[in-house]
Request: fold
Amino acid sequence: MYIGDNKLEPNLSILHDRELNEAYAALAAGKGCLALFANGGVEAGVSDLPKALLVHWIDVSAGKWARR
Reply:
């Protein structure tokens, strides 16, 4: 998976209090990240990511962008 021309690499280091298979993350160094929270209850430490973050929520059960 890519963000622009930047390949996303699996990286769980930004996830805290994660149980097995509860959440996943992938990063494109200095460009952005993708996170999947299967059941909530996980924190993501984003202080090392770019200062301005654009967040999109997807309701995977409905296959649509969620309103947040």
